Protein 1
Amino acid sequence: MQEEMTALQKFIDTAVEFIANYSFQVVGAIIVLIIGSLIANWVAKLLLAVFEKKKLDITLSKFLTGIVKILILAFAILIALGKFGITIAPFIALVGALAFGASFAIQGPLSNYGAGLSIIMSRPFVVGDTVTVAGVSGVVQEVKLACTILTNEDGVKITIPNKHIVGEILQNSKDNKIVEAVIGISYESNPDEAIRAVSETLNRFSDVAKTPPAQIGIQEFADSSVNISYRYWVPTVKFFQTSYAVNLAVYKALQSSGINIPFPQRDVHIVSQPSGVGS
């Protein structure tokens, strides 16, 4: 019991001595960190507002404001360490050594950061664009250093590591996405009337882009039908919704115009053999 009391007393004495010697430094360091954090947030918001006023790309704006914020916070931390008389030279050397050793273990994340920096600086796409890459497609919601975030019409969030974007084949259709559809008409029907009916149907939809205009024409002469192909652009977030509605409207328009939509047909010829053959 006496040993426990002695240990407790020693701890209390050490705590009191630390408070007496470093209380002002601790308070000063905390104040410096709080002020640094407030200044960093204020400067970041100010820069973001200036960039938005200058209509700078939102991805590049967030990247630059983030860098400025980190630099201000790092400067505040250095000042706070100085309150304790700590020199930063050994820490810089230690961080450099750790970074060199860790670089071999985190090559994947580092390659993502490098690719993210390349995307932010070269800007092959920006927030709001529709991109298709690495087998997926969606609207760009955010570009980070490590990854790019897309969303599709179903509200699914798609996260792509940036190293799978840089150096790959990338399709960027901006705000819209193309719809390609085919409908067959009989050989007895007038293809000009069918094309006109499809064109009038597409013009009735406000979500179908007028620029570039829709493309409609004969795609091929199939076995049972003349296939009419139509291509048009719609907002990516309404891709399936619009394409389904257009297909139904095209079907009804062709029926109203008296244009026949055939089903697959086959001519079967029965060849009879003379009696006695093969017996």
Note: The chain has three domains: 15-88, 122-172, 176-256.
Protein 2
Amino acid sequence: MVKIVQDFIFNFKKNQPLATQIVQAIEQLGGQAVVVGGAIRDLLLNRNKNIKDWLVQDLDIEVYGVTAQQLEQILRQFGPVRLVGKSFGVYLVDGLNIDWSLPRTDLSGRKPMVMIDPELNFQEAFRRRDLTINAMGINLKTGELIDPFGGQVDLKAGVLRYVDRKLFAEDPLRFYRVMQFIGRFEFWPDADLDELCSQMSLLQVSKERIESEFEKLFLNSKSPSLALVWLQKIGRLKEILPEVHATIGTLQSSDWHPEGDVFEHTKQALDLSARQFYNSDQDKLLIMWSALCHDLGKVTHTKLVDGQYKSHGHAAGGVPLARKLLNRITSNKNLIDGACRLVAQHMEPLVFMKGHASLAAYKRLAVRLAPQTISQLVKLTLVDRQGRVVGGQLPNQIDFGVDLQLSDFIEQAKLAGVYDGPERSVLFGRDFLDLDLAGPELGRLVKQAYQIQIETGITDPQQLKQLVVAHKPFKNK
């Protein structure tokens, strides 16, 4: 542990020259600079093996022994300074990914009265932090690892404990932080924290803050389902995600789902979706929310037929449930609409392969999904079909080759040219201006042109225009 701290300080001085000068100026006034918070937790967890790369990320430095005025004067010597509310004592220097703050105590509540006290001792200053694993710091002057509440021991044990029960309970956002830490670090709360979280009020947490914690859970976890398990364990899953809670005990055919009920399957699909590669965080969030919601409709659409559990229509039936769940968590309309499209269509790959769908059908599917894509639908379908493990470990990656039916589906979608998006229109409004049509009529004609293009496969503009103008009938194939 001593070597980790020494390496950190050495690399800090080497790779943060401007910040090092600021620290030296603070020390010349008799102050001390302490790196605090999640950075120390992650360092001790060895989450970032390359300290040099890690040091260019955001850091929090708490400054002791100087006044707010003195700290501000020091910082202004090194660049323009922005204040994140003077009452909170947090300063930003342009060009540095570092928050400089002063030790403070919070009196109570989500919008607490803040008392800045430069002479506060480390233990009292760290008391306001949520969990022991976040209540550690490295003193850049002395090289000391400050750990007044046993955070190192809890890190090694994989235990989440509150620092101060009263202060923890006064900030309901901390409940959701515990939830996402469970998924991110695969740590478990001790009995006291479980008991507190089972009863504390959550009414004051805004939708935006709740969404932010779910995003951290989804983007940083290998097994986000552990958070669902915890919510159910302490009796709060029904309150926070009632649609997911309703899947507990909803049975499935063992031929298709040997892993158990819909809740078990949902957890596995969610975890598999968390482990895949994505082009962006937004893409990952879309698939993960879709995975969480994809089988919600089974709760209302599952029936026992001839000794087998059937869920006909559950994809469409799950859309209003998914929308209701997502509307409580996020205001991102694109995310909500996109996830609902994927939920509604998630059974289509199997339907297409059973029915030997035409290329035109693939093109229509791409239109129904847009702006989502068949490639995204395939990813959801794969985590759905492979999240069915009995008594073993889920794989880290979905296997595109193990599912021959879906491989054929992918091949056909690519053959139709719509795997990554709908077929482009070859005719637009400008192509029909010579017909002197009113706006609505022109719009309907352009739409009809695109439908004919999809159904017939005609992509020559002149040939397609002749067919559209002639109003020749066509049939869906």
Note: The first strand starts at residue 32 and ends at 36.
Protein 3
Amino acid sequence: MKCGLLGRKLGHSYSPQIHSYLGDYSYDLFEKEPEEVGDFVKNGDYSAMNVTIPYKKDVIPFLDALSPAAQKMGSVNTIVRRPDGTLFGHNTDYFGFTSLVKRSGIPVGGKKVLVLGSGGTSNTAVKALTDLGAQVVIISRSGENNYENLHLHADASVIVNTTPVGMYPKTGVSPVDLNRFPRLEGVLDVIYNPARTQLLLDAEAMGLPHENGLWMLVAQAKEAAEYFTGTKLSDNLIETVHRKLSVQMQNIVLIGMPGCGKSTIGALLAKKLERPMVDADAEIEALAGKSIPEIFAEDGEAVFRNWETQVLGALGQQSGLVIATGGGCVTQMRNYPLLHQNGSIVWLQRDIQMLPTDGRPLSLANDLGVMYTKRKPLYEAFADFSTDNNGTPEATVSAILAHLEGAK
């Protein structure tokens, strides 16, 4: 059975990986220009396929029948070639978004929900939320309700972002200031790269329930796989695939005192997981064109910290890396969202008497016990979890992997 994804630019799609967990069929990427779409839909070599932007509406004239969901949404993201050769169109985004809302636990029934954006995903969200009993208001750049009159909607209970604001690579920006909504009860963002957009980081800082769009992506793929194969799949598969994908996509960020073993553990983790390992200090030296001791001696610590933030910002945007940071990166709180946006942050702990000082300017110039006392609360604030690194490196790596694989 030959399946795949139809779109224009698909280089960064996670769909093949997701579908590899969902069924025994091939799944290819079909990149087509607009003028090629009609012929491919009618005559292409496929049994069934998904459709992504910008073709979810364009494919409809070439189909023989639509499901009620596709008719309701006015767009198609799943096409099945039936045994008689006719083409059937369905939309699984509705199921995906509804599943995301339920997964989040955020109550929407009877609540005022602001949906940011007016595109295709907004249309999906609005229909699903309305069916769930929400009072939906669409916020767009030029509509009746827009970003200039948000004060009219300060009573909103839930915000759903369907715009690309905050998506990789333009991270670190948010479409709205959550402080303007004192009655807010939860935030959803359909973006899944980075895992935590600035909007979600702000929600997290306010203690609000929040969820990104990865669950929606997996859930809609699960329903598409059912149409591909004609076989009902357990909803438990969504949780399984979501967890696997989350672990694979996130960076593993190692923090801790200078000399605690971040580079050694990072290299072993990278080898074990077959993913790139990046040493932030080495990246700083490459960017500055001089060694870290030279940066401290010639330019001072403040300049070094600026270089460090620049490097961590670039690394933190990426996915699937193992990142070994410098021991003092936690002294700059501005580094936390850069590392947290797409990473699981691991604090490596090692006894102070085991920490080397050679080639480490701050370690040589300061009492390590005093330094640790000052930095301990900072490591605790940054870390998602901590791991002892006083034993063998292999034991430390095993402990980290066990924690990551067990985390939801």
Note: DSSP finds 16 helices and 16 strands in the chain.
